[in-house]
Amino acid sequence: MSQINPGIFKKLYRSVWRGWLIYHLADERYKFMFDAPPENEWVVLDCETTGLNVSRDEIISIGAVKIVGNTLMTSDRLELLVKPDKKVSAESVKIHRLRELDVANGLDPEVAMAKLMHFIGSRPIVGYYLEFDIAMLNKVIWRMLGQGLPQPKIEVSSLFYDYKNHQLPINERGGTIDLRFNTLMRDLKLPVRDAHDAINDAVMTGMAFIKLRQLLE
């Protein structure tokens, strides 16, 4: 008996898993997120929050930009302010400079998530320490869909690690590498914008993603 090609098995598994997720989707209007993604397109995103505790804090702003090929589509971007249920602390204001009065007229979280999901479509999502942003977004999206964002996720700090790791001699690979954002941008010789602004951070992360894709090729 011939062996099953692992690639075929993976494709079959992904197809079955995709079908299961669509079947259990609480709102069929968002089935488009499971479509085949446009070729060579991504969405890079960043969120600002009231703090760093996923269970307790909330999103107050979202920035997202589309990437097509090696072009960052800064004219095709999404900038949203989101009204949190809790007060914006003085400590968080020092970081992102968004005061309570700035987000008082922000969007309801579910309205903001709907706009974001339509903006992303089925494109893979790119981010820097994306796991936190996705966890914050999914807190609201789970209430809407019964599941989280299904798109593939691409972590820029992991790409940077791979790039730097491959530059080392073989016997030195696998060690600790400085993955701080400022270090990453400086090493890649990319321009830096004011940090802790969602759209600025998304744009800088997008530039890093494009540069790293080229370097890793």
Structural commentary:
With 217 residues, this protein is α/β, with parallel strands linked by helices. It has one domain (36-216): Nucleotidyltransferase, domain 5, CATH 3.30.420. It has 8 helices and 5 strands. Strands 3-2-1-4-5 form a 5-stranded mixed beta sheet, sandwiched between helices. Helix 5 links the parallel strand 4 (125-127) and strand 5. Helix 6 (156-167) runs parallel beside helix 8 (198-216). The longest helix has 19 residues, at 198-216. It is globular and about 55 Å long.
Provide a short characterization of the protein structure:
This protein is an alpha/beta fold and 217 residues long.
Structurally, how many domains make up the residues? 1
Give the overall silhouette.
globular
Radius of gyration: 19 Å
Report the β-strand fraction as a percent range: 15-25%
Strand order across the largest sheet: 3-2-1-4-5
Would you identify the CATH H-level superfamily? Ribonuclease H-like superfamily/Ribonuclease H
Helix content: 40-55%
Distance between the termini: 38 Å
- SSE topology string: HEEEHHHEHEHHH
Instruction: List segments where confidence is low: pLDDT < 50 over at least 5 consecutive residues.
Output: none
Structural class comes to alpha/beta
**Mind describing the biggest β-sheet?**
5 strands, mixed
Give me the CATH architecture, please: 2-Layer Sandwich
Count of extended strands: 5
